[in-house]
Amino acid sequence: MAYVITKLLKKFLAKVQNKIISKFQVAGMCAMSFMHGAQDGQKFIGILIIYNYILKGLSVPENIIPMEHIHIILFTAVVMFIGVSIGGQKIVENIGNNMTNLNNKQALCSDIATSATLLIASLNGIPVSTTHVKTVSIIGVGKSEKNSVSKKSVIQIIETWALTFPVCLILSFAIAKFLINFIAV
Fold this sequence. Notes:
This protein folds into two domains: 2-148, no CATH class; 150-185.
């Protein structure tokens, strides 16, 4: 999607001054932040709400009213903020500095493509990784503009992603086993 959006907007953005692009970038970053919450935050909130019902020995209702669980929503927001604050800089530096160099117009195209992809996924109930979507978007913009994209960085990211799934599987299994034993006692 990033490749296509960059190609479609290239002529239009060439006529727009960088000062105006900066203002569009703020809107793009706001859209990215909103879609990040729509994707990643909701997954954790849903799991915590269900876990909360289980702990209380209640059945999970078909329709959950979000405001009844505002404490879980706020907790998740704070935890995500802390996580991004701790680990986000390394990700941004690796993707932003090592993979490819984008100018402001190209970065805006990446934000538009990422936000659109996350919106489509969210509206269709498809859980996706915002980091994966953003990374692939940056690669797509880089390729569409014939920027050099570091193969070493891309391979390193793919290797990390490949390790993420089995590690998460093992960790999830261990935590689930622990909680089942803890709750059964």
